[in-house]
Amino acid sequence: MRVLVIEDERRLALYIKKGLEEHSFAVDVAFDGEQGLFCVAENEYDVIVLDLLLPRKDGLTVLRELREGGSQTSVLILTARDALADKIAGFDAGADDYLTKPFSFLELLMRVRALLRRGKVEPQVKLQVGDLSMDLTAHRASRAGKPLQLTGKEFALLEFFLRNPGRVLTRTTIAEHVWDYGFENTFSNVIDVFVKRLRNKIDRDFSPKLLHTVKGVGYILQEKEE
Known about the structure:
By secondary structure, the chain is α/β, with parallel strands linked by helices. Helices cover 41% and strands 22% of the residues. The chain has helices at residues 10-21, 33-42, 59-68, 84-93, 105-120, 152-163, 171-178, 190-203, and strands spanning 2-6, 26-30, 47-50, 74-79, 97-100, 126-129, 132-135, 140-143, 146-148, 169-170, 211-214, 218-221. A hairpin with a 4-residue loop joins strand 7 and strand 8 (140-143). Helix 2 packs parallel to helix 3 (59-68).
């Protein structure tokens, strides 16, 4: 899952980025409002973490422009403003959640995950296709009850497939949700390499095979190959 953090306090922004990446999120950072809007125009995000006191364009303005432009991406406001009037203004502008500073990173993580579940209408933190399952809270995956040893990026890739069962995912779509802004060469075989590694871990010693190639298009996770 891909997250955009719009926060002008660099140490805090990088702290959030590092923490989310440790939980297999792909994270981009923008340090002012205009840069944040540019990122949203160029990339697709699953959640946006937005500060209010931003240079060049404040957070409420950014949020209003996102909603006026038709963006439905879930937005978590993260700010030192804790007055009720500020919270009302944030929700009126289109925020989905509001967290005040100082904050616990664990709470931030749980709120981001809650927004993901809300957007996907998923009441649980466990994802499953056939006997392949993932527990997001415990950060572990298994097939037929056998634990899978996955790298951080493999975990993120599998999560994206499990959130989209039966859907053909193109390499571009995978890149947009699993890799951050630093991943520029979408014409490389990097995605194919990671999918091959993941397939070896979830399919090689199990039956039926779940991760399939759709020639010339991308990949699909499903119990039966069509």
